[in-house]
Amino acid sequence: MTVPFGRRTIILFTTVQLFGLVCEWTWQFAPQSIGSFVWGTALIALFPGNVISAVIVEKLFWHSGLTLIAFSIMEIPLLLIINAVLWFGIIGAATRVRR
After folding, report:
1. The pLDDT value given to residue 56
2. Which of 59, 91, 96, 93 has the alpha carbon at shortest distance from 74?
3. CA–CA dist 99, 96 (Å, integer)
4. Residue closest to 85 by CA, chosen among 93, 97, 75
5. How far apart (Å, rounded) are the C-alpha atoms in residues 71 and 34?
6. What's the gap between Cα 3 and its chain centre?
């Protein structure tokens, strides 16, 4: 079985996700003039995993008494898994179709 994505794809995925996570955790500390840009960058870089993971975590744990910080920390591995499955699934499907 051949892997449809290589080292460059994995590095690109990792870079985009890390950049998105840094933006997500720092946008509120950025100067007001660029804060919304940093927030938007995080939203786009982590989409759709950020939205889907937030819904899942909130549905499962909303009445558990956890803090919003705990929710955010629980969302990180879930959003990375969702994005990895989607990124590499789409790349794999596109590679198969192209052949």
Report:
1. 96
2. 59
3. 5
4. 93
5. 25
6. 22
